[in-house]
Amino acid sequence: MKALNWKKLLPHLTAVAVFVLISLVYFSPVLEGKKLEQQDIRQFKGMSEEIVQHRAEYDEEPLWTNSMFSGMPAYQISVLHKSNLVSYFSKIFKLYLPAPAGTVFLYLLGFYFLLVTLSIDYRLAIVGAIAFAFSSYFFIIIEAGHNTKAHAIGYIAPIVASVLMVFRGRMLLGAALTALFTALMVNANHFQITYYLIMLLFVIGIVKLIEAIKEKTIPVFMKQVAFLLLAGGIGALTSSSKLMTTMEYGAESIRGKSDLTANQSNKTSGLDKDYATAWSYGKAESFTLLIPNFHGGASGGELGTDSETYKLFKNSAQSSQAKNIIKQLPLYWGTQPFTSGPVYAGAIICFLFVLGLFLFNGYLRWWVVGSFILMLTLGWGKNLMPLTDFFLDYIPAYNKFRAVSTTLVIVEFLMPFLGILSLNKILEEGKTEKILKGLKYSLAITGGLCLLFALAPTMFFDFTSPNDNQYGDALSNALQVDRASIFQADAVRSLILILLAATSIWLYLSNTLKRLSTILIIGVLILGDMWVVNKRYLNNDNFKAKRKVVQPYTPSTADNQILRDTDPNYRVYNTTVSPFNDASTSYFHKSIGGYHGAKLRRYQELIDYHISKGNMQVLNMLNTKYFIVKGQNGPVAQLNSGALGNAWFVNEIIKAENADKEIETLGQINTNTQVVVDDRFDIPENISFDSTASISLTSYKANHLIYESNSSKEQFAVFSEIYYDKGWNAYVDGNLVPHIRGNYVLRAMAIPSGQHTIEFKFEPKTHYTGETISLASSLILLLFLIGVFYKELKV
Q1: DSSP letters along 236-262, please?
Q2: What is the pLDDT of residue 2?
Q3: Is the same domain home to 743 and 793?
Q4: Can you list the residues of the chain whose pLDDT is less than 70?
Q5: Are residues 4 and 123 both part of a single domain?
C-alpha cells in the first residue's frame, strides 16, 4: 500500500478546517447547546410522534400512522431503514458536526471535491465552495426546516464530479464514487432534487454523445455510460425500500392520477397543475440571482426607522407600535403565495458566470448553458405555461413534484461552477485579448444592469403586490416607496461588489496583485456578500433553547381534556388551527387533519368534497369523537355523540358505477346504516341485518387492529380506518380474507355469523422485499468501494 503523502493532504485538511470554522462561526449558537427552530421540523415532530412512540414501545417500525389524515403510510414521514448500510456514511461527510452546521459543511465539502477533481487550485476551490454553499436559498431552506432537501443538495456536486471523472477516463474510481454518492443522495429522501440532478446529467450525457459522434469515440462513450448506469443503479438500489414504497404509495397519493373526471384541464397523471405550479418564479424575479432584494426579499420583511412605512405608523394612532410593526411587513411583491427569501447566487458569481460565457467554448459551455436555460425557464412555471404544460404532460414523473421553482437549485449550482472555472482560467492564462474582451462585456452586462436599476428603479416596475389592495391606499403607497428603496439599495450594493471584483481581476492582469492576493480578495468579497444576505433570513435569533425545540408543543386545556379519554382509537378535528395544514393536533391525538405534501388522493378529495363543507355524516364515519373549537378562554373540546366508533354494521349497500358517483352518493347517505361501494368490488349477496349484532375494537396498535364480533347472521361491517390495499391485510380467526373499500376511503368487509376475531395487519410486502434488496446492494457497493480504493492505494 502507498504511504500517505501528508504534504499532498495538507491543502485538503486546511480546506476542511476552514469549512468547519466557517460553519461553526455562522451557527455559533450550536456551541452553546441551542437548536435551530425550524417550522417544518416542528411539523415533522407532530406528524411523527405516534411513530416514535410505537418504535420505542414495540421496537419495530409501524410503517403506518393513524395520527394524520385518519391514517396513512409512514414511508414519507419517519421510517428507519437499517438495511441500508451506506446511509451511515452521511454522518461522516458531515463530520458529525451539530445541525445545521453539518449541512453547510456538506455543501462546502461537496463543491470543493468537485473543483479539486478538475485540478483547480485548492485555495480557489475553497472560494468556489463558499460561493456555492452560501447561495441564499440553501440557507433559507435550512431555516424553514427542509432538511431532506438541504441534505440532497449537498450531494449534487460530488455526483457531478464522479460522473465527469468517468467521462475523463478514470472509470473505476468515478463509477465507485458515483455509486456511493448516488446511494447517499437517494437515501437523503428528497426525490425532487434527485430528479432535477438526473435532468442535468441527461443534458451532460447528450452533449457528451454529440462530442463522441464528432470525435468518433462512440464505443468509449458507450462504455462510460454503461459504467455510470451500473454504478448509479447499484447506488439507488441501496435505498430500494424507500424507492419501491414511494413509487407504490405515490400512485395512490395526490401525486398519482385521480379517478374523478371533473376539471380535467387542470389534471395530470400526477399533481394538479395549479398545485404543482403555485410556487413559480417570476421572469423578472429571476434577477434576484444578481440583486437579492430585487423583489422585496421575504414576505415578512423588516424595515428601518427611516422607512416611509415607519413614518406612516409613527404619525398615526399606532405610533407606540411602529417599531414592532416594521419588523414584519409584506415586502415581497412577486406572484408566489409567499416566500422566506430570494434565490440569490451572489453579484460576483453572476459577474463571473457571465464572464465564463465569453471565455469558454465547446462542450463545457453547451451543457452548462443548456442546463442553465432549461432549469431557469422551468422555474418560471405558470409564468411560462407552454413549456410547463409540455413537461407536466409528457416528461415522465415531472408532474409528481410541486414548487417548480426548485429547479433553480441547479441554476445555483451551475453559476458558481462556471464562475470559478472562469476565474481559474484568468489566473492560469493571464492577460489575453479574449479575457480582456470578456471582462469588459461581462462588466457592462452585470454592472450595467445594476446601475440602470439603481438610477431608475421606477422606470421598469411599480413595486405593487397582488395583495396590496387589502392594506389600504396609505400603507400600500408607503410599502411601494420602501420596496423601491430597498431594491435600489441592493442594486447599488451589487454594483459595488461587481466593480470591486472586476478591479481585483484587472489588477491581477496588470501584475499589480499576486495570484494568492486576488483569490483572497475575491473570496472575502464573496463570503462577506453572501454572509450578510443570508443573515437577513437565518441568524442567531432563529436559535432557541434545546428543550423548547425538542418539545415543540404544549397541550392546551382542550388537549388535556381529550387525553383523559381511555378509548384507544378515536379521532379529533381541531378547528382552531388550519386543520389540513398543521400537525400540532397529530402530536397529541389521532387527527382527521395533518401536515403533509403527499396525502392520499382519495382523502384529499374527501376533504375537498365533504369534510371542508362540514358534512357530519362523513365526519361521523371517520369516528370524529371530539371537535376542538375556540372558547372564551382558549380552545375547548366538544364531544361528538354522533361519531360511529371504530366499526359498525350497515343494513344497506349502495353500488356506484364510478368514482364520481361514489363521492356524490357519499354526500346523500346515512353512513350509520348505509355504505356506498364501487362497482369494481365484489359484494356478498347473502347479507342481512342483525340489530343485536355487535363489533368492537379490543386492541390497538398503529399497524395491528383487533376486533371482536358477534352476530346471529352474516353481516357487512364498515371500519373507520383508511383503505390501503398495498399492505393492509384482513384476517378472521387467523385466516386471511378479502376486504374492500367502502364510502370512498374506508375499509369494509363481510363478517360471518357467530363470534369471531377480526384483525387488520399492515404487512407491506414491497417494504420487506425492498429491505432485502437494500441490504444486498449495500454489501455489493461496499465491496466495490473497498476493491477500487485498494487498487488506487496499492503500490
Answers
A1: HHTTHHHHHHHHHHHTTBTTS--S--T
A2: 61
A3: no
A4: 1-4, 317, 795
A5: yes
Instruction: Tell me, yes or no, whether 448 lies in a domain.
Output: no
pLDDT at 562: 96
How far lies 207's CA from each of 160, 171, 192, 370, in Å? 14, 18, 23, 9
Burial state string for 169-198 with b = 16 or more CB within 10 A and e = fewer than 16:
ebbbbbbbbbbbbbbbbbbbbbbbbbbbbe
Owner of C-alpha cell 416542528:
42
Q: Please check whether residues 90 and 180 belong to one and the same domain.
A: yes
Cis? peptide before 98, omega within 30° of 0: no
- Report helix, strand or coil for 210: helix
C-alpha cell at 281: 418564479
CB 754 within 8 A of CB 59: no
Work out how many domains the chain is built from and give that number: 3
Specify whether the CB–CB gap between 597 and 402 falls below 8 A. Answer: yes
The C-alpha cell of 751 is what? 363478517
Is residue 701 domain-resident? yes
**CB burial class (10 A; 0-12, 13-18, 19+) of residue 336?**
middle
Grid cell listed for 503:
478591479
**pTM, whole model, 2 decimals?**
0.94
d(CA 556, CA 338): 29
Return the percent helix, strand and coil in the chain, to nearest 5.
55, 10, 30
The strand ranges marked E within 523-579 are 543-544, 571-574
Backbone φ, ψ for residue 112 (5° rounding)? -60, -45
DSSP string, 83-121: T-GGGGHHHHHTTTPPTTHHHHHHHHHHHHHHHHHTT--
Q: Would you state the pLDDT for residue 5?
A: 74
> Which residues neighbour 706 within 8 Å (Cβ) at sequence distance 6 or greater?
697, 698, 699, 700, 757, 758, 759
Only one residue has cell 432584494, namely 293
Residues 261 and 359: beta-carbon distance below 8 Å: no
In a domain, 193, yes or no: yes
635 and 575 both lie in a single domain: yes
- Cell reading at 290: 444578481
pLDDT attached to residue 691: 87
Determine the Cα angle at 63 with ends 60 and 68, to 5°: 125
Single out the residue in 645, 669, 704 at which a domain terminates: 645
Looking at the fold, whether 669 and 629 belong to one and the same domain comes out as no
- 143-186 pLDDT per residue, tens: 999 999 999 999 999 999 999 999 999 999 999 999 999 999 99
Would you tell me how many other CB atoms lie within 10 Å of the CB of residue 611?
Answer: 21
In which element (H, E) is residue 653 found?
A: strand 652-656
* Judgement on whether residues 103 and 166 belong to the same structural domain of the protein: yes
Q: In this structure, are residues 629 and 670 in contact, taking their beta carbons and an 8 Å threshold? A: no
Q: Which grid coordinates belong to 99? A: 445541525
Helix (H, G, I), strand (E, B), or coil: what is residue 747?
A: strand
What does the pLDDT read at residue 484?
94
**DSSP of 378-395:** HTTGGGGHHHHHHHHHHS
Domain match, 577 and 634 both: yes
**Predicted pLDDT at 4:** 65
- CA distance readout (Å), 89 to 187, 230, 296, 458: 11, 21, 40, 52
- 526: in domain: no
Distance CA 628, CA 622 (A): 16
Q: Is 618 helix (H, G, I), strand (E, B) or coil?
A: helix
Cα–Cα distance measured from residue 495 to residue 278, given in angstroms and rounded to the nearest whole number: 32
All 3 cell numbers of residue 550?
425538542
The helix-helix angle for 156-167 and 408-429 (nearest 10°) equals 60
Task: Supply the range of the domain harboring residue 597.
Answer: 59-76+553-645
Measured CA to CA, the distance from residue 635 to residue 638 in angstroms comes to 10
Q: Are residues 778 and 753 in the same domain?
A: no
Edge to edge, what strands does the sheet with 634-639 contain? 571-574, 624-631, 634-639
Question: Given this model, what pLDDT does residue 515 score?
Answer: 96
What distance lies between CA 324 and its chain's CA centroid? 32
Q: Give DSSP secondary structure letters for 458-478.
A: GGT-----TTGGGG-HHHHHH
